[in-house]
Amino acid sequence: MGKRVLPTSTKGRDNILLQRNSTKKIMKIVEWLRLPEVRNIENLDAISTSVLHGRIIRKKGFLRKLYTDFYKQFLRSSKDLDGLLIELGSGGGFLKEVIPNVITSDILPVEGVDLCFSALLMPFPNQTVSAFLMIDVLHHLPDSFLFFKEVNRCLKVGGKCVMIEPANTLWSRFVYQNLHHEDFDPNGEWGFEGRRPLSDANGAIPWIIFCRDRKRFEKEFPDLKIAHLSFSTPFRYLLSGGLSVRSLVPSFFYNTIKGVEFLLSPLNRYLGMFMKIELEKK
Q1: Contact 111, 81 (CB under 8 A)
Q2: Could you tell me if 268 and 168 are in contact, meaning their C-beta atoms sit under 8 angstroms apart?
Q3: Where are the domains of the chain?
Q4: What does the pLDDT look like over 97-118, one tens digit per residue?
Q5: Shortest CA distance to 269 belongs to which of 177, 175, 169?
Q6: Residues 5-60: pLDDT tens digits?
Q7: Cβ atoms within 10 A of the Cβ of 162, count?
Q8: In sequence order, which residues have a C-beta less than 8 Å from that of residue 281 and are 6 or more positions away?
Q9: Which of 10, 113, 181, 235 has its CA 20 to 30 Å from the CA of residue 45?
């Protein structure tokens, strides 16, 4: 008798089960590496959680260096701009250490943050802001269309909105969909149901707006020119352990890994975990 061939559907089910089992094993390792101080977080959206995240960023040398590099990108993008520089979603960050004149803000009244407001309804008069700066904020906003209407209203001509957000690449999609607690749905729209500032999200929204739906964005917001879009940072955030896991490498390896990423930068379209988007008001 010839070799019995399993039906395609059975093979497919076996592959799915194998993938699920592999993901479960990875998640067990991730849980083992979890920072002790985050194990008892009961409410991701509490002010205390943002304060805790700030302490973690400052304590973990590798992660702090990564945030400093992100902040230096903001400095380079805004160095020629005069007037109001606004950071959105500041949380527990430390951008003022790099750009002392920035005004920090958050939707939560976090201690040390200058202003508290929603990015969907900002307290600035028309055409008075020189730059909006934000890390991992856009994909937490439930209505991106309303947000960009506010950005367009508030920015001066020549002003900028500079964002560092999750990318959608072969590597990042695997990581975000299997090893991260936030939703990551490339088939989603420009928003989502829910109003929780940290736990509600779709990490794919930046890619959806500026890659998949770029022509729609350009049609809806012709005054907001996409001046720069790039993918980067395939390994540093993952190796830092982020805000919930122990660092996987010592901080003195930071520059070495940064150098490896530079050598691999031609492959960032496939490997980058973050994307930088820079809009300029015409």
Answers
A1: no
A2: no
A3: 10-281
A4: 999 999 999 999 999 999 999 9
A5: 169
A6: 445 556 666 665 666 665 666 666 666 678 888 888 889 999 999 999 999 999 99
A7: 23
A8: 152, 155, 156, 157, 158, 159, 160, 223, 224, 225
A9: 235
